[in-house]
Amino acid sequence: MSAYQEDQRPTYDPVAVQPMRDELIAVGFKELLSPEAVDSAVNQKDDKTVLVVVNSVCGCAAGSARPGICAALQHSAIPDRITTVFAGQDKAAVARLREHYLSGLPASSPTMTLFKNGEVLFMMHRQDIEGRGPEDIAAIMMQVFDEHCQSAGPSITPEQYAQVVHAKACGSKIPLFGA
């Protein structure tokens, strides 16, 4: 296996992180698994808003970020497209996002970034997430959606939302890939 292939292997056991992926997928997120998928989603000049959540195994992702953004997407105004990449898993996709679209901004995960025409409109860094509860995250993001988004929410029906399972695993308990 080449050094590049080794470097692109997931950090964490993909089976163990699947519930963290499923939580976002359940509310309508599309996973961006490759650099090309990131380009296709973010680098559009169509006046549509694109939310990209950098998912993570960390505790603030489980306790606040994922539940907060899931709740925010139950709002009356939401982004046109909702997408996600997973830090430590979708390494090439995350690298493309950070190097081409978030250049000059500190890399952190989780993050929530709203784009329009390939430009950042708003970014919530990990430091803005830590110490806040999901209700606070949802309130901030709903305000951002009200300011920048035109699509009608919610992303899924209230009945579907009631069935969403929030992954609460602690990142330090997630097994490393191949360990």
Fourth CATH level, the homologous superfamily = Glutaredoxin
Give the C-level CATH assignment: Alpha Beta
Derived from helix and strand composition plus strand pairing, the structural class reads alpha/beta
Proportion of residues in extended strands: 15-25%
Low-confidence stretches: 1-6
The CATH topology assignment is Glutaredoxin
Mean pLDDT rating: 90
CATH architecture assignment name: 3-Layer(aba) Sandwich
Largest sheet: 5 strands, mixed
By DSSP (H or I, 4+ residues per run), the number of helices equals 8
- The amount of helix comes to 40-55%
Shape: globular
Rounded radius of gyration (Å): 15 Å
Widest beta sheet: strand line-up: 1-4-2-5-6
Number of domains: 1
> Termini distance?
17 Å
Count of β-strands: 7
Order of helices and strands: HHEHEHEEHEEHHEH
Could you list some keywords that capture this structure?
179 residues; alpha/beta; Glutaredoxin; two-stranded antiparallel ribbon; globular
